[in-house]
Amino acid sequence: MEKGGAPFLLGIIFLTLIGVQGSPIMRSQRCSCITTNEGAIHLKSLKDLKQFAPSPSCEKTEIIATLKNGNQRCLNPDSTDVKELIQKWGKQVSQKKKQKKGIKHQKSRNVLKVKRSQRPRQKKTT
């Protein structure tokens, strides 16, 4: 072999080994929700609502509701009650975000007013 061929060959082997080690390992072919509940959940008892789209590890859409008491329930994504719950939850979350932005804006205004009023006034000298 030529002098330049050995480092080249070692470089290719090195890159191949790195590529093999970096390949992702597939998760087990399981869904988080084995069964779904048909019962209605009240919006007041809901802490969080997550929706997972179909993926290689699970072929179906999954909706997991976390209740305020810490329990989790899998909901049927085809149910009309669940679809309504998702819409109401989305509206509630967006309203909370708007309220938080409004409160932050009001606080910043109050801080500016306080800072202005605490400054000592300088007398004009002419």
From TrEMBL:
User: Mind telling me which InterPro entries this protein's record contains?
Assistant: Chemokine_b/g/d (IPR039809), Chemokine_CXC (IPR001089), Chemokine_CXC_CS (IPR018048), Chemokine_IL8-like_dom (IPR001811), CXC_Chemokine_domain (IPR033899), Interleukin_8-like_sf (IPR036048)
Report the locations given in the UniProt record. Secreted
Record keywords? Chemotaxis, Cytokine, Disulfide bond, Secreted, Signal
- Residue ranges annotated as transmembrane are none
- Name one molecular function that GO assigns to this entry: chemokine activity
User: Of which family is this protein a member?
Assistant: Belongs to the intercrine alpha (chemokine CxC) family.
Q: What is this protein called?
A: C-X-C motif chemokine
Upper taxonomic lineage: Eukaryota, Metazoa, Chordata, Craniata, Vertebrata
